[in-house]
Amino acid sequence: MEHLIDCKNIVKVHRGRGIGGSRKGFKALDGVSISIDRNESYGLVGESGCGKTTFARAIMFLDPPTSGSVLFDGTALEQLGRREMRSFRKRMQIVFQDPNSALNPKMSIHDSLSEGLINRGIEEKERIGKIKDLLELVGISYAYKNRYPHEFSGGQKQRIVVARALSMEPDFLVLDEPVSNLDVSIQAQIINLLSDLKRELSLTYLFISHDLNLVSYMCDTIGVMYKGKIVEEASSELLVSNPLHPYTRRLLASIPGGGMRSKVNSIELEEEDADILAARAASRQGLHGFKGCPYYSLCPLGDDECISSSPSLRDIGGGHVVSSGHKVSCHKA
Amino acid sequence: MMADAKELLKVENLGVCFIHGTMEAHALRGIDLSFYEKEIHGLVGESGSGKTVTSTCIMGLLPSPPGEITSGRILFENENLLELSQGQMRSYRGRKIAMVFQEPSKYLNPAFKIGEQITEMLRLHLDMNKEKARERAKELLGLVGLGKDGRVLDSYPHELSGGMKQRAMIAIAISCNPRFLIADEPTTALDVTLQLQILRLIKELKDLLGMGVLFISHDLGVVKEVADRVSVIYAGRIVESSTKGTLFDKPLHPYTKLLMLSIPDAHRRGQRLATIPGRVPDADATPSGCAFHPRCPLADDRCKSENPELRGNEDGHKVACHHAGESWNI
After folding, report:
1. Residues forming beta bridges with residue B98, ordered by sequence position
2. Is A296 helix (H, G, I), strand (E, B) or coil?
3. Sign of CA dihedral B179, B48, B110, B143
4. Backbone phi, then psi, for B316, in 5-degree steps?
5. For chain A, which residues lie within 8 Å of any Cβ of chain B, measuring from their own Cβ?
6. B46–A183 CB contact, under 8 Å
7. What is the pLDDT of residue A285?
8. Which of A169, A279, B34, B112 has its CA 20 to 30 A from that of B286?
9. Structural domain contains residue B159
10. Sheet hosting strand B318-319, strand order edge to edge
11. Mean pLDDT computed over A200-213
12. Is residue B29 situated within a structural domain?
């Protein structure tokens, strides 16, 4: 299958301010390369602060990457001018975590949904029809079109945000923690809706979440991100049944309820010894000074090799003729 | 579970109503809960179901007005906590009944060092002098895994990570050896790997100090991890209550079943998730009869008019449903 979006070596450095910070900066993304096939859903998991959202914003050029290239359906995004980028961006849309802050409280949902359509230059008559279709698509009655966001529940607001994203008829949708602010019973409704929409409209998803359970249910491929790097990437089945990176194993073992724990080597579950960790943290002066594996300071398998060199993401086809597509960056995998 | 376990705290028929002008919101509509020593009792429910109101009542922190306790008793050490004066309650709160909150950064005072915040409790409740309190605070930090050298004593909250702050909160809560600990969504704001560590810590401390724990969460997975006994609350009523094993193996209430089925995981790939249509009713518009009937796949006319009692069978599994245990096509 062809790739819809191909990201190569995305680096994002947040430049610090002030005397010390201006030179050093913080490397939020450290050479991330992923590609997503058409009509696939790619899950990006990792803990807060690991760079998931930064990555999504970077590849959509909302907050352009410091270096790296993004090829979207044959178009190199970094070569587009501002104006071209604006019109191109309608093919990629994003749904944010918190529907309360994503919708303008002073605009009725009809106005919120119209905004994008007006930008696309759609006449009023057609626009009304479109809004009706969109609301129906996400399961909100058209009769509510003149209501304001506060009159809807969290789940309904998230549906409206999805409808607004779809109003641009995108191929590619970034879902940034779309259900983590919702109640359990509402989460399932939104997840089902997203699965239906993907099938009906042949969408491609980049699904960002910290919840491995959810991502393994929803996505075809999963990338695990740690400190701005993809440390493991595989199909959902492979990643869950045979996690190779110690960090992935730790994440799986941490899922409350213990459903995944049996599959995971018990060594990752040991509580770290605070002294060892402190010593390791001291030996590792931030991302810039330290050349070794970023996970070293927490890794139960870490040794000298992990201090001296940072592992790169490699395919472990394991001698099969066809590559399994299971990639991991760990010396000890 | 533990038949010989001593009952520590008992909530009986607790009803709470919030009055706003002419509007009455019945947040709790008569709930019964029993807590035992060395046992973690998980209370699961969605937002607005009354979990936090329950805990504020036990702590004696219900804002009144607008809140008003309309019925019930909370029995702790042969006293009805609801009849105590504010002054009397103050000697219980923090001393014998302590609480850990969801967002540690909101409840730690940013202007005081962690050590000062722990010793404040010790000096107030246990009349310790400065040196002794500091010694004890150091011990407590070791107990919650913040290092035995007492380095954290002189840290301000902003110098600690989220997980460390929550550990510090727990140290404050257990500083006076409370008999009963309320943990209100203590891990919701944390990453998964930290979450597991905090859950384990609470379990360890419960055994070590012999506390009873009320553990409030919206996450069934978390409750499965940590609790010994689980109650499910919906629209201000307990709908099902049992030991953890029984509840997760044989849920009887359709709401509990649906909640479990609506959690995505790898095994359900390609299948649709079971959903509960609609949403949790607002407390000022609780449906008649069984509050769950508009969303329930088993509802019939009886459910619309008659509110089911919470009834227990011989092994202590309690459920409030006219159709308990019946199955349906999903």
Report:
1. B181
2. helix
3. positive
4. 85, 10
5. 47-48, 153, 155, 183-189, 191-192, 195, 210-214, 216-218, 236-237, 240, 250-251, 253-259, 271, 274
6. yes
7. 46
8. B34
9. no
10. B97-100, B180-184, B212-217, B40-44, B229-234, B237-243, B318-319, B311-312
11. 91
12. yes
SS3 string, B180-222, reads: EEEEECCCCCCCHHHHHHHHHHHHHHHHHHCCEEEEEECCHHH
Indicate left, alpha or beta for B301 from its phi (over 0: left) and psi (-120 to 50: alpha).
alpha
Rounded Cα distance, B217 and B187, in Å: 9
Nearest to A67 by CA among A123, A10, A24, A137: A10
The side-by-side arrangement of strands in the sheet containing A314-315 is A92-95, A172-176, A204-209, A41-45, A221-226, A229-235, A327-328, A314-315
Q: Distance (Å, rounded) from C-alpha B27 to C-alpha B260? A: 24
Q: Which residues of A touch B259 (CB under 8 A)?
A: 184-185
- Residue span of the structural domain in which B232 resides: 7-96+176-319
B140 in a domain, yes or no?
no
Which chain A positions have a beta carbon within 8 Å of B196's beta carbon?
253-254, 256
Torsion angle, alpha carbons of B311, B317, B322, B328, to 10: 180
How many Cβ atoms sit within 10 Å of the Cβ of residue A325? 13
Q: Is residue B91 part of a domain?
A: yes
All domains in chain A, ordered by first residue: 38-57+81-227 (3.40.50.300), 241-328 (no CATH)
CATH number at residue B202: 3.40.50.300
| Chain A CB contacts of B273 below 8 Å | 188, 191-192, 217
DSSP characters over A98-160 = -HHHHS-TTS-HHHHHHHHHHHTT--HHHHHHHHHHHHHHTT--GGGTT--GGGS-HHHHHHH
Q: Among A153, A187, A236, select the one facing B266 at the smallest CB separation.
A: A236
Look at chain B and report how many structural domains it folds into. Answer: 1
Q: Which chain B residue is nearest to residue A254, measuring alpha carbons?
A: B193
Nearest to A197 by CA among A165, A153, A223: A165
For A18-69, how does the pLDDT look when each residue is reduced to its tens digit (9 = 90+)?
665 556 678 889 889 999 999 999 999 988 888 899 999 999 998 889 999 9
The strand pair at B97-100 and A221-226 is best described as: unpaired
Give percent of chain B with pLDDT exceeding 70.
98
Q: Are residues A257 and B221, on separate chains, in Cβ contact within 8 Å?
A: yes
Beta bridge partners of A8: A69
What ipTM is given for this predicted complex?
Answer: 0.82
- What is the chain A residue with the closest CA to B261? A188
Nearest to A187 by CA among B16, B275, B102, B230: B275
CA B239 remoteness from chain centre? 15
